[in-house]
Design brief:
alpha/beta; 7-stranded mixed beta sheet; 7 strands
Amino acid sequence: MLGEALFDPGDIVITEAPSYFVYHGVLKSKGVRVLTVPMDEQGMDVDALEALLARLARSGELDRVKMIYTVDYFQNPTGLTLSVARRPRLVELARRFSTKQRILILEDAAYRELRYSGDDVPSVKKWDSGNEFVVYASTFSKPCAPGLKTGFAMMPRDLVSPSATSRGTTTSAHRTSLSTSSTG
């Protein structure tokens, strides 16, 4: 539903590599170009992300970047968790490169509740103090009811109504106004 509210054909979403292939299919069905950055033992390589964003800025394509997608807890398919040190930097990069439009981070925390040992890691959303750049999405399906496909999201206030009512009816003009709204 968020994609219906945000994406136009030709827009760019950056994901970690490897990433959840099902979501890649959803993005591609909307005409979105998927670019990837590598992962290491600490999750998404934020240095590689910064280099990619800088390259897109130099080539004039930065204004097509609408989202950075991360499965930051027990990532599928690697099982890696984004390190605590990289989480605030991810938000800082989205903020810094949001020069002509807001670049959102979709924090797919579907596996967060599957921790069996160790301390919980704070959400990327924690570093989005103004509730402007991070959409935190999770589900009840993974930890307690695999057959029940339900979920929830915490997102910037201006995205709530368009996401909840999108169902294929959001116009391109509406998407443009969302992507160019003030990001504070």
